[in-house]
Design goal:
The protein has 17 helices and 10 strands. The protein has about 500 residues and is mostly helical. Strands 1-2 form a two-stranded antiparallel ribbon. A two-stranded antiparallel sheet has the order 3-4. It is elongated, with a radius of gyration of 33 Å. The C terminus is likely disordered.
Length: about 500
């Protein structure tokens, strides 16, 4: 059994033990001990984005001449804060220091040190613990690059890695970057679903079925039209999400503690936005008001709301799939979903619409995350919103849940879905509401009477209308002229025509 060893580190509150091999330090260790809530860790997007800020800052601050050459104690038993008098050890140039920090941050961006990010989302307000976790990991890794060991801090977490920064501008910038980092992946998942639905719309375009409103029989539609509407709804949500994401491109980095930019070079904000654009490949813009960009979470709430709207769309589509595939013997049974697993532990042969059920549950969770984002966004006071850690966590979780569930639903439900044409057209044959197509010919009242009789006698509306026309009992609307069997045939003979709009039944215009 291996016994874990520790090193001692101190901060403004005193001394504490930190695992000897850890790249995180004293403030991270305090957060781990203070917040043993769920065992959750930061989303990769949050780690990547904060490391991007640290990397950019190291390069920008060096370019602005803010790094100095550095003398550090070579005694590993002492913290850098304990160096006395003129004791000398290692010497590093400003460039070496900047490059080591930038390299360490790049490694964090690439995922090399994910296991060193140990502070969970339910933490101190504003995200100081997450920020210091990043500062300490990058400082210790930079120290290793410079030839030292964790805890020596040849690069200091606060003085160097966090130079010209505050948690208060780093965290809102990071949550914006993290969301943008996964935006293309999110949109690709949705475009994949849209495309799969469009393929089915084309495949099912010749299948005429009963429309339903209020879950009651309505005039005919094509199964392809139903799926085309699903595809268009997803496309509209893609547009909404893309539009909302534009607000996230506006960064407030450089506002430091309250928005005034204290301790940051006057050129720092603009240079940081430019450098972050270069390092991440994202299109980013400067803020016209750093105070607003720090204390307002409205842009994040707007983006979250667009994801909530998508969730509502997907719940509706999933529920339609469940309804259309219901039965099969006693339900609609108009579509067949792929059988991906047995549906019951007691009923042999049962197969359930599990992928649609999964999508529903995933989207319920997304809506819950959005509620948390909304509550967190309105909970800020004055110059800072301290609820950013849970806001960021839920925003990133929404994106992950959507990406994963939509990809699974597309691959394991939509692409393998088939139509039961016989059942769909069979239901339509029993639908008395197709009499609506006769409204321009016979009027609403005679049509209602036909429906009532057809339902009472379990008769076909077309056959009943034909019978009444042949006997002369069916009259034209607003005139005492009998309807002919040819007019009935014209209106009801080709139900496909009823799905294309317009006035059917041979009614002519003119005076």
């Amino acid at each position: 059994m291996t016994t874990q060893t520790f090193r001692k580190e101190k901060d403004s509150l005193g001394e504490i033990q930190v695992p000897a091999a850890a790249l995180f330090g004293v403030q991270t260790q305090r957060a781990v001990e203070n917040f043993p809530i769920t065992g959750l860790r930061p989303w990769r997007a949050f780690i990547w984005s904060i490391a991007a800020v640290k990397r950019a800052a190291a390069l920008v601050n060096f370019e602005l001449g803010l790094f100095n050459d550095r003398e550090v104690d070579s005694n590993p038993a002492r913290n850098i804060g304990e160096i006395q008098g003129n004791e000398r050890g290692k010497h590093f140039t400003a460039k070496q220091l900047s490059q080591a920090i930038a390299q360490a941050a790049e490694e964090v961006m690439n995922g090399t040190w994910d296991n060193e990010f140990v502070v969970e989302p339910f933490q101190a307000g504003a995200g100081t613990s997450h920020n210091m976790n990043a500062n300490e990991v990058i400082a210790n890794r930079a120290t290793q690059i410079l030839g030292g060991e964790p805890g020596k801090y040849y690069a200091h977490p606060n003085d160097h890695v966090n130079m010209a920064q505050s948690t208060n501008d780093v965290i809102p910038t990071s949550l914006r970057l993290g969301a943008l980092w996964r935006l293309d992946e999110l949109l690709a998942a949705l475009k994949g679903l849209q495309t799969a639905l469009e393929v089915k719309a084309k495949e099912f375009d010749k299948i005429v079925k009963s429309g339903r409103t209020h879950l009651q029989d309505a005039v005919p539609v094509r199964l392809g039209q139903e799926f085309g509407a699903y595809a268009k709804a997803v496309e509209r949500d893609v547009e909404r999400i893309r539009r909302a994401a534009e607000g996230l491109r506006r960064l407030g980095i450089g506002g430091t503690a309250v928005g005034s930019g204290l301790n940051a070079h006057p050129d720092y904000h603009a240079r940081m936005v430019k450098k972050l654009s270069e390092l991440t490949g994202l299109q980013l813009t400067t803020s016209d008001n750093l105070f607003e960009s720090m204390n307002s979470m409205a842009d994040a709430a707007d983006f979250s709301a667009s994801l909530r709207t998508l969730a509502l769309t997907l719940i509706r589509i999933a529920n339609d799939f469940r309804l259309l595939s219901s039965g099969p013997s006693t339900g609609f049974d108009e579509i067949r979903l792929p059988a991906v697993q047995p549906g019951s532990s007691i009923m042999p042969g049962k197969v359930n619409p599990v992928m649609a059920e999964m999508l529903d549950q995933a989207m319920f969770h997304v809506i819950g995350c959005d509620t948390t984002v909304a509550l967190a966004a309105q909970a800020g006071q004055l110059q800072l919103n301290v609820m950013m850690p849970i806001l960021a966590h839920n925003l990133f979780e929404m994106m992950q849940v959507i990406i994963g569930s939509v990809n699974a639903f597309t691959e394991r439900a939509v692409k393998g879905l088939t139509a039961n044409r016989e059942k769909a057209e069979g239901w339509l044959a029993k639908n008395a509401i197709i009499v609506t197509a006769l409204n321009p010919v016979i009027g609403y009242a005679q049509g209602a009477a036909l429906v009532k009789e057809a339902v009472a006698n379990n008769a076909s509306i077309k056959e009943l209308a034909m019978e009444r026309a042949k006997s002369g009992a069916l009259k034209h609307r607003d005139e005492d002229r009998p309807v002919t069997p040819e007019e009935i045939e014209s209106a009801l003979g080709d139900l496909y025509k009823l799905t294309e709009g317009g006035i059917v039944g041979g009614v002519s215009g003119g005076g």
